[in-house]
Amino acid sequence: MSYPLTVHPGAQRISWVSGILYGGDALSETVLAELDALEAVCSATRQPVEAVAYCRNTDRQDSRIRVIDGPKEMLADPHFLASDIVVFHFGVYNELHDVMNFVRRDAQVVVWYHNVTPPQYLPRSAEALVHLSYQQTEAFRCADLVLCNSRHTRDTLQRTLQHRDIRSLPLFGANLAPGSGAARPPRPAPGTEVRLFTCGRFTRSKALHQLLDAAGRVPLPKDGRLSITLAGLLPHSDGDYVAALQAQAASLPPQVTVRFLFDLPEQGVREQMAAADVFVLPSLHEGFGMPLVEALSHGLPVVASDSSALPEVSEGLALHHAAGDVAALAAALGRQIAALKEGKVACQTGTLPAETWRQAAAAATVKYSRAAYVARYAELLGEWLAARPPTTESRVRLVQRALGHLVPVAQRDPRETLDASVEAYLLAHRVKRKAAVASDEDLLREILRWPFPDVEQTDKDVAYWNGVLTRSGARSLLEQLSNAPEIRSMPGRAQLNGSYRQLVQQVLDERRQAAPAAAEAGRSLESRLALARLTLGKSRSIGSTAFVQEAYKLILGREADPSGLDNYVGLLEARQLSREGLLKTLAESDEAKQRYGVEGRAR
Fold it and tell me: Which of 63, 179, 509, 533 has an alpha carbon 20 to 30 Å from 212's alpha carbon atom?
């Protein structure tokens, strides 16, 4: 591919600005794809371009990524001052975006707007942050170009930012089906059990409570069953809403079962989409709705609300219902299930033969691949770079001198006495030495010194984090710790995230491989029982079914089998067994003793 790039003397410079840069985060993955697009342009044109992506936190080890403390530090950074193009990725309020008002007037400013969820769809605790986000969008008036991911968002912005260049640019999905959707074998018609799947954050704006309500109203044959799988990332969810959903799920009719899957990796999401019969997205607000596109790429029929950009994104290939209308959602699910039984798919275009619909869905989702996005963005970069000669060094010195009178350079935190990479190495190797001789609890205390260097962790704190490690694995534990306020408040400590996490994860993986039985169990039987008591003791509001399912996972390390689930739920509901009694029964079972290699009774 050729780019309209005029060769300028000297290197041009581009800055990207984002709150965080984490693998797996949608906004972060967009920035990383754009860095790849820049590499493609530079390779094709042989034109040198220097790039820096500024953020407050990252898990990537990349020389182009620079973790900074705040706006003052960025405004004093030589690369930022010399940047010919500055790209801001805006998803929520971040003080780094305040520098938008101070970018040199001869630099090009591009804002990538990733949408802000309206406050009425969020918990009250998030309202202040959302209002700050809307206030910060006033700075978009400084932009030469605003990018967004749908025509719906573009039209909304146009009403506020009149006379601005606003363009919609399709993003890409992390969970798209690999290869060509048209080449995959057709899905079989569902049997007596119809499997529904949805994924995303657990927040009220996703209307999952309405999905559970509607599930109880879907007309099913006498022997019909409805299985619902809700998948989502807990660190980005509303914990109270999750608890309410679990309680609601426990009260549904017996022909409807609900399963919660937390913190699935991308491959896990793809596997669930491949196994489901219908994807459901009943959201009250979606700036784009990438999970809908990902479902279509898997040839998975979709039922979705008509909110925001969803009808635009589905291109008539989803069956839409009125957002917020539970009866309409139940009717749409019933219609889709009836069509599937006949080997067809219901959508806004009509009820189509399954193969016809599948071919159309595959063709519609090709443009949402990462490679397609990189190609689109590379064309934009070529246009931008061709239009702007590089900033001269004398101009940089002039701006730097002027700013020096106005903005004091950020000072290094006096507690940060070591280079970040050296500190990461020392901390990680202290963990490695501890791993050779320490118990799980003592090893975890050593790991917790990274985000909480000045606080001694209580037994309850250690039990909580051990629960995270047991349920979600080392990677998820380290990701959550990296978001601790103590980490964010110290830029040097934030900078060492990538190195430290990689080294410590290697230590934990080696420990798991060295003692497979202990690794599988995670803890001794007594400790696992204590963890279950601590975790479930706070969950009085969840129903009996959810309690039994979680108890199985925490003590036996597996999903509850149907017979065991029915038996224990019945005993709990009849008050023939207490919740504490259930935990002890599972801990004293032959399966638990064999799994943990212990004898005797659990206390």
Answer: 533
Query: Domain limits of the chain?
Result: 12-172+370-404, 181-367, 420-521, 525-596
Instruction: Report which secondary-structure segment, H or E, holds 353.
Output: strand 350-353
Contacts of 571 (CB under 8 A, 6+ apart): 577, 582
Do 12-172+370-404 and 181-367 come out as alike in CATH topology? yes
Which ranges of 104-207 does DSSP label H, i.e. alpha helix?
A: 127-136, 151-160
- Rounded CA-CA distance 520/516 in Å is 6
Distance spanning both ends of the chain, measured CA to CA: 69
**CA atoms of 532 and 598, how far apart (whole Å):** 18
Q: Is 395 exposed, middle or buried (0-12, 13-18, 19+ CB in 10 A)?
A: middle
Quick: pLDDT tens for 410-462: 444 444 444 555 666 677 778 887 777 677 788 888 888 877 777 778 888 88
Fold of 181-367: Rossmann fold (3.40.50)
- 165-168 β-sheet, strand order: 65-67, 49-55, 12-17, 85-90, 108-113, 145-148, 165-168
- Per residue, what are the HEC states of 220-251? CCCCCEEEEEEEECHHHCCHHHHHHHHHHHHC
Task: Compute the distance between CA of residue 93 and CA of residue 387 in angstroms, rounded to an integer.
Answer: 30
> Strand, coil or helix: what is 294?
helix
Q: Are the CB atoms for 5 and 43 separated by under 8 Å?
A: no
- Residue-wise DSSP of 518-535: HHHH-S-HHHHHHHHHHH
Tens-place pLDDT, residues 457-513 = 888 888 888 878 877 778 778 877 776 666 655 555 555 566 677 778 888 877 776
Chain length of the chain: 603
Q: What is the dihedral of CA 207, 210, 215, 217, to 10 degrees?
A: -150
Other Cβ atoms within 10 Å of 440 Cβ, number:
20
- pTM for this predicted structure: 0.66
